[in-house]
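Entry for 9-methylguanine complex. Fields follow.
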Amino acid sequence: MTRINKLTCGARTLDLSAPVVMGILNVTPDSFSDGGRFTERDAALRQAEQMLADGAAIIDVGGESTRPGAAAVSEQEELGRVVPIVEALTTELDALVSVDTSTAAVIRESAAAGAGLINDVRALRRPGALEAAASSGLPVCLMHMQGEPGNMQNNPIYEDVTTEVVDFLRERVAACEAVGISRERLLVDPGFGFAKNMTHNLVLMNEMAALRALELPVLIGVSRKSLFGKVLGREVHERLPGSLAAAVMCVERGAMIVRAHDVKETVDVVRFAHAVRMSHKE
Ligand code: 9MG
């Protein structure tokens, strides 16, 4: 199997010779304490600066909440939230920015503003998204999800969750290749917490090494997810230990990018898990 060690992300390069952490920067109205675009921009810059100092290799900017039941956002609103922040992070912090979006116009305008990666929880299934991603020239992370964030937790059903996730991702990789997005530009993500109950998430995590069959870098997101509420009975603010344990298990099973809120702690556990994986008898 050929391992991809470097990803060209627009003007920047992402080194994937060891696993890295992607810091989460939500720019939804409830993400910062007070309103007003100037304050939001400033707060976003400060938060991103801290995540970079803590060791994040990528900052993932999202303007549409993907939580179950979250309100839909218009294209104009998403553009207004995301694009100025992408521009600020790339020009003022020289950051490698990924954009968490499914919207064709946001993909296009974020790429023009300097984004380096598209992170799509809908795996480019919205109208125009495949074509927008193709013409952006950027790498794309394709995530597995059944349904939409609004209805995805309404009794998701799988016969074999891992096989179905791998088959879905294989089909989306083929759809990308059909519009000219080469495999060198693709990453895959099993979509923990998206249309999966507690057992689906646990089984998928245990069997995650099956994604290696796709021969593409794997990104995962587990940070503070409701899985830790279900398995451990923890509230959102108490989920760091569970999130770190899951990050380690995913790196052991081959994940190369870990999406996280708590960057400093996640960088440490990812580095340690990688050191163990790479160790050999002298
Ligand atoms: C935006 N977003 C929220 N959770 C995510 C996850 O698990 N993976 C990816 N790629 N994006 C996510």
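NOTE: The pocket of 9-methylguanine is lined by residues 62, 66, 100, 119, 121, 141, 143, 189, 191-192, 219, 221, 259 (CB under 6 Å).
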